[in-house]
Design a protein that fits this description.
Elements (H helix, E strand, L loop, with lengths): L3 H10 L4 H24 L14 H16 L1 H23 L3 H23 L11 H16 L5
C-alpha cells in the first residue's frame, strides 16, 4: 500500500515545470469543485431523507475524505475545510439554478489548461497511469499551501 509520501513523490514526477505547477495549483481545485457540482446536480433518492445537504456530492466528498484520512490526518483536515467551502458554494449556486452550467464551464476550461500544462511539461497526466491520482492532485496542491504557511507535512 502506498503512503502519502509515495503518492506525492510519484505525482510530483510529472509536475516539475513551474508553469505546469501554477496551472495545477489553480485548476485542480477548480476541477474538484466542478466534480462536486456535477454530483450535487444528480437527483437525490428518497432514501437520503429530508436533509437536502445529504446528496450524491456529500456522499462523494465523504468517501474522498475517508481516503484522505487513511493517508494523512493533517491533509484530511485541510481537505475537510476545503470541501466544506466547496459544498457551501455548490449549495448557493444550486439555489440560484446555475450550478450545472457553472460546473460545466469550470470543468472544461480547467481541463483544457491542465492538458496545456502537461504539454509544456512534456509528461502525460498522472491519472492516465492510475485514476487514484485524480484524488491525489488536490493533496499535492494543498501541500504547497501548507508549505507557504510553514506547515510541514
Amino acid at each position: 500500500m502506498r503512503t502519502f509520501s509515495d503518492w506525492m513523490e510519484e505525482y510530483g514526477v510529472s509536475h516539475q515545470n513551474p508553469t505546469n505547477q501554477i496551472i495545477h495549483k489553480i485548476c485542480v481545485p477548480l476541477i474538484m469543485f466542478s466534480v462536486i457540482g456535477f454530483f450535487w446536480c444528480i437527483p437525490r433518492p428518497a432514501f437520503f431523507g429530508p436533509i437536502h445537504l445529504i446528496n450524491w456530492a456529500t456522499v462523494f466528498v465523504g468517501l474522498c475524505l475517508l481516503f484522505y484520512l487513511s493517508l494523512n490526518f493533517l491533509m484530511f483536515g485541510g481537505m475537510f475545510i476545503m470541501t466544506f467551502f466547496m459544498i457551501g458554494i455548490c449549495h448557493q449556486l444550486q439555489m440560484r439554478g446555475i450550478l450545472l452550467p457553472v460546473s460545466a464551464v469550470i470543468f472544461v476550461i480547467s481541463w483544457i489548461f491542465q492538458f496545456y500544462g502537461h504539454k509544456i511539461e512534456g509528461q502525460k497526466p498522472s491519472f492516465l497511469k492510475d485514476l487514484v491520482f485524480l484524488l491525489i492532485g488536490p493533496l499535492w496542491v494543498l501541500r504547497f499551501f501548507y508549505a507557504k504557511m510553514g506547515i510541514k507535512v
